[in-house]
Write a sequence for this structure.
């Protein structure tokens, strides 16, 4: 049951882009076409789940026992950067087709604050299930990270669909480009506010 | 390029928020009030100045291939310094800004200035470039924070100035996107005129 709660809460209610403001740069940057948006989403799902798994283990089995929690930021970003690099190399070797599809998005993910953000959230924030607040355990953390990434993909693909249509209409000059994209995102966020209170 | 123009170009001509559109996450996430925006801006400015200075000092020693990871480590060190300082002296602000303080590491402005300016210029110039970009970022955040606070809670830096109920939506997520969108429109319009 709590897994369903985690998924609904992460994908819809606390959507990572439209509610938590993480990963806004790629959200605005690669949302011009649905196909690129889908590629980016797949890459984020992959990296975010893997990165959260590793940083969760590091936090609980290295940083906490040694009492060096203040090293969290430095350690996590290094782990994510090297993980992305490694994923790139491995993909290139074992699955050139997948590398073709995701390759160009991987370097962008290192500076995607959503990945570092989710990694930090799962080890610092307490979640409340049926009245008791507790830290996430490992399976919950992984489900949470994957759902957050799915929420990112959902928002990105919807937004790319909207922007494809927007290219066809006449936008007043000062609004062109980023401003109209931001206002559209705001209206999309308003729609997502309708989910608040479900969980 | 003289020293003054290095600072001023970061404020209007290459404003990180309104012109370069970098660092959108903290811009939208922390500007629920003018004070929060100012706090976030100053924290980022601190990291920008010092990471620019150090990166320009060590840029010659780093092989080109491991450039980006090395820059990120330098930036992460200064972010940790900011985290510890803020936890000690302004714990309330640290709590409000929360996740966005460690996320300065992945703020595109900081890495962007390191890569585009600090790695190719002398230490003093790089430091001033950090100051300029920092001021531009802080100004942008404070203006957006002030607008959202005024519309969303009818106050300015915590002083209640508009009577009656305000539009709560401007404090919430959708208001952030919409307010920033319209501010950019205004900025474009003024720049053209």
């Amino acid at each position: 049951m709590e897994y369903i709660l985690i998924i609904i809460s992460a994908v819809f209610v606390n959507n990572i882009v439209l509610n938590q403001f993480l990963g806004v740069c790629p959200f605005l940057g690669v949302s011009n076409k649905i196909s690129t948006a889908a590629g980016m989403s797949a890459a984020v799902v992959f990296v975010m789940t893997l990165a959260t798994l590793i940083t969760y283990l590091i936090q609980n089995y290295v940083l906490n026992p040694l009492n060096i929690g203040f090293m969290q930021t430095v350690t996590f970003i290094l782990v994510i950067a090297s993980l992305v690099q490694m994923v790139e190399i491995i993909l290139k070797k074992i699955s050139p087709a997948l590398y073709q599809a995701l390759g160009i998005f991987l370097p962008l993910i290192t500076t995607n604050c959503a990945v570092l953000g989710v990694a930090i959230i799962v080890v610092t924030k307490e979640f409340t299930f049926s009245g008791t607040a507790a830290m996430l355990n490992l399976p919950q953390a992984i489900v949470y990270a994957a759902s957050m990434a799915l929420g990112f993909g959902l928002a990105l693909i919807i937004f790319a669909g909207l922007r494809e249509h927007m290219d066809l209409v006449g936008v007043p000059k000062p609004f062109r480009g980023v401003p109209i994209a931001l206002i559209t995102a705001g209206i999309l966020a308003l729609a997502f506010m309708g989910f608040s209170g479900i969980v | 390029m003289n020293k003054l123009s290095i600072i001023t170009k970061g404020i209007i001509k290459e404003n990180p928020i309104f012109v370069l559109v970098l660092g959108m996450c903290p811009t939208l996430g922390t500007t629920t009030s003018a004070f929060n925006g100012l706090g976030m801006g100053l924290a980022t400015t601190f990291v920008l100045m010092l990471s620019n200075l150090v990166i320009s000092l060590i840029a010659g020693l780093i092989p080109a291939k491991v450039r980006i990871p090395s820059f990120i480590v330098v930036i992460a060190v200064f972010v940790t310094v900011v985290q510890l300082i803020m936890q000690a002296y302004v714990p309330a602000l640290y709590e409000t800004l929360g996740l966005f303080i460690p996320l300065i590491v992945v703020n595109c402005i900081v890495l962007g200035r390191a890569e585009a300016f600090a790695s190719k210029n002398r230490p003093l110039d790089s430091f001033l470039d950090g100051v300029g970009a920092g001021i531009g970022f802080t100004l942008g955040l404070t203006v957006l924070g002030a607008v959202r606070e005024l519309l969303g809670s009818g106050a300015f830096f915590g002083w209640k100035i508009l009577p009656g109920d305000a539009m709560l939506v401007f404090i919430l997520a959708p208001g952030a996107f919409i307010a920033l969108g319209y501010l950019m429109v205004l900025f474009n319009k003024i720049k053209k005129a």
Q: What stands out?
A: Chain B is about 65% helix and 0% strand. Chain B has one domain: 3-142. Chain B has a mean pLDDT of 88.
